[in-house]
Automatic annotation (TrEMBL), chains A, B:
Residue positions binding substrate: 371
Protein name: Alkyldihydroxyacetonephosphate synthase
GO biological process: lipid biosynthetic process
Source domain of life: Bacteria
């Protein structure tokens, strides 16, 4: 196995797709007191600690997956040392790969995963499953403990196992990345309709393990809605779950592994519900006088329809630079379906035509590239997100925004609603602030304040990023001590030596 | 607390609503060799064993709930000795209440439930939560072990806690029965839309604990789709779960308690998603040439819409006595919504007008009353149900039907599809057969054969009746040894003395 050079080190995506900052943003940064940052250290110069993996372990793993699929070189390990949070990027830019794994293993199928987990359990080596590596909550590292560990990169598990056109389901191996899955499905007339911002790199297994939600969730549902069956490799054997679209046979064990973030086992394949490719797809923009007025309108769409596939309402601050300046921009995306014009007009919306929607769609994967340009310019750009029932949303919005503004110096705080349900919605906050002397520490303090505000206002600590290491303490507060005990009990059974992604999800 | 006499002993519902058999069915029974059965023993004459509950325990429970809410008399205990399966009714008709609980406790609220569970854990007294008592899978007894136990009847937990019109959610205590909940909601313009055949007596907590699915599930979803939050009393304390319509914060713990059948704790309140009352409601019938042709049509509705609220397709045998004789009857119910006429006609359906649909709707709760009349007449009428992905449904249908016909002498076996999803559907079988010398034993043998066939053909052991004691062994096969271990581990944490409904769900 060799690492492809296609992905940018200490940044996002294809280096050829890197962007420069628009002049308007450059001017804004100057107003925020932002000064250009030091350039990123090259991946060849990153400081990676010596691998702690004993030769015996390396040989045992090579016996399972083949020697060519066990990498211990610095670049492979550095590239598996974390995800894509801004804190990850800041550390990577500084050449710091202290928390990198001791080896990267590329299994070729489910049975090899089972054998790797068995070998690592016998030797108490920690295992971090690694899909697209796009976690922004510490889900794939860096490790904060000194325990030896391997990254289990699933990219070789990339097959379509079965496509059942009658049941409209497809079974994929877990390492298939989203664009490849859509390419395979499109050739047969189907789509998943799952398009999160991480789409270009994320894997189907990662979507399942983190309960991902895509930009078209209003029309296609969340990824956990799409998964009808799972195969999970654990250190004590294999679990198959899901024999029907729905069942009254006890607790839904699919829902125990969805969101388990590799802490209970490795999702090695999954069966997902398909939809036909839409005949037509179009985007449009609407303007509302206020975030409150827009929120009322999108609540009506979620509760009474018609429901577009994409529903995304920016607050006044996020809207300020766009075509709805002085009000709020609502972007809608339709995959076939009835238009919502009458409802939106009745709720005070003004149609802005297709252009704002098309622009959003054209730039829908651009934010991570823009973040890299902001990092170069000396800014720190990060996001956090939550969800709550509709009646709690106004207070949640106000209190999280206040916590961020109060704990950061001259920050830009933007927000949008991008996932709507009958009973509630998500809030997605973006923060831009000067890096200053200790960008990671300053953000951690602000994030902690915002996370406290989320729980106090009745929100969930994550609507679609997951728990990872970043949200672990708040997650424990959210589910309470008995919830934590229940998860620990399950983990003790399926992972008796505690090797599975031991730093995420479940607090020690 | 006193037992109301409103519910029929050894039968279903209001005695005043008892029905006689239509002449056509009486003639059919004669052809099946059915001879009238012995009349039911009166409830006053039922054999109930002495209560094994020590005085000290009774006093401790009385200190929690009040002496008036601890009943140890024979009638109350007999009435909590089982559910409403035909086997339950046959035993009750024979005057056998051997498996009755040793006392019936009526707590007045969540805190009293917690205190009862604590007291019972200290004394290792088993606790069977009891809502509407409508289980048909042994979910509320009779007990097959000699262990002392109480029935925890939740009828006093009957309050609406909160109605949130903005979020369209309502929080109810768990003992509220479905008609009362709908009455409360209708006064505010809302409905749950959850109408299973047990509707007249079942409780909301029971719906949650068993993953109930109602006749209008195509339009309103299953009950597990409706529950956005739960409060659960366990022997070690209280669990609250659900803060948002959706979350990426770890495994969905709501889904661990939904379907847990009282084995992990007692659902004491729940927050459910509401819908507006429909403006119009109408029913209609369609005829298809075959079950296969009808199944194709309802699959199209489930996958591409338009989707009526009620979709119910009878096979040739179930259709034989009705207006689609020689073909198959499809009943549709619309709550507002677009009609599906064009799709159905294109798929070969013939419209039969509103009458067959209206007749089904008028008789939708009649089957359990009819079953009582069949029992009087000497027949044994029972049902079983499953679900699978669409591509597996034809073989599942054929194999379960064959297993039933092969293991019962001169049985009538009917089937319908009554819950449809994008990826699959349920199959609901009804069997009518002469009681013979050992009706319960003969059915158990036939049911075992059918259950084996369900698993072999890739179905789930229950789509909406639950696991109880009846499906426990097949459930274990369905989820596999690691699934069972995971559930046992959770139970050991939340119920360390194993007092919670110890005979259901999780095999010893």
């Amino acid at each position: 196995m060799s690492e492809s050079a296609e992905e940018r080190w200490a940044g996002w995506g294809d280096p050829a797709a890197a962007v420069s900052l628009p002049p308007s943003i450059a001017a804004l940064l100057e107003a925020l007191g932002v000064r250009p940052a030091a350039p990123s250290v090259d991946v060849a110069d990153v400081r990676v600690p010596e691998s702690r993996l004993p030769d015996e372990v390396r040989q045992a793993l090579a016996a399972v997956v083949g020697a060519a699929n066990v990498l211990t070189g610095p670049e492979a390990r550095a590239r598996h040392g974390g995800g894509k949070s801004t804190a990850d990027l800041v550390r990577q830019r500084a050449g710091d790969a202290a928390g990198a794994p001791d080896a990267v293993i590329y299994p070729g199928g489910h049975d090899e995963v089972v054998a790797v987990l068995r070998a690592c359990t016998e030797r108490r080596i920690a295992v971090v499953p690694f899909g697209g590596g796009t976690s922004v909550v510490g889900g794939v590292g860096p490790s904060l403990s000194g325990r030896p560990r391997i990254a289990l990169d699933l990219r070789r598990l990339d097959r379509l196992v079965e496509l059942d056109e009658v049941s409209r389901t497809a079974t994929f191996e877990a390492g298939v990345r989203a664009p490849r899955a859509e390419e395979i499905l499109a050739a047969r007339g189907f789509t998943l309709g799952h398009v999160p911002q991480s789409y270009e790199y994320a894997s189907l297994g990662g979507f399942a393990a983190t309960r991902s939600s895509g930009q078209a969730s209003a029309g296609y549902g969340r990824f956990d809605d799409m998964v009808v069956a799972l195969t999970v490799a654990t250190p004590v054997g294999t679990v198959h779950t899901g024999r029907a679209p729905a069942s009254a046979a006890g607790p839904d064990l699919r829902q125990l592994f969805l969101g388990s973030e590799g802490a209970l086992g490795v999702v090695t394949s999954l069966t997902v519900r398909l939809r036909p490719q839409p005949v037509s797809r179009r985007y449009e923009g609407w303007r509302f006088e206020s975030f409150e007025a827009g929120a009322l309108a999108v609540r009506r769409l979620a509760q009474d329809g018609p429901r577009p596939a994409v529903v995304r309402l920016s607050d006044e601050y996020e809207s300020a630079l766009g075509p709805a300046a002085g009000g709020c921009l609502l972007v809608l995306g339709y995959d076939d379906g009835t238009d919502a014009d009458a409802v939106l007009a009745a709720d005070g919306g003004t149609a802005l035509g297709p252009e704002p929607g098309q622009r959003w769609a054209a730039e829908r994967f651009a934010a991570p590239y823009l973040r890299d340009a902001l990092l170069d310019a000396g800014a720190y750009a990060e996001t956090l997100e939550t969800a709550a029932f509709w009646s709690r949303l106004p207070a949640l919005y106000a209190q999280v925004r206040a916590a961020l503004l109060d704990s950061l110096d001259r920050a830009l705080v933007l927000c949008h609603i991008s996932h709507v349900y009958e009973t509630g919605a998500s809030l997605y906050f973006t923060v831009v602030v000067a890096q200053g002397d200790d960008p990671v520490g300053a953000w951690q303090r602000a994030k902690a304040r915002a996370s406290d505000a989320i729980l106090a206002a009745g929100g969930t600590i994550s609507h679609h990023h997951g728990v990872g290491t970043e949200h672990r303490d708040w997650y424990a507060r959210e589910i309470g001590p008995l919830g934590v005990d229940a998860l620990r009990a399950v983990k003790a059974v399926l992972d008796p030596q505690g090797i599975m992604n031991p730093e995420v999800l479940i607090p020690d």
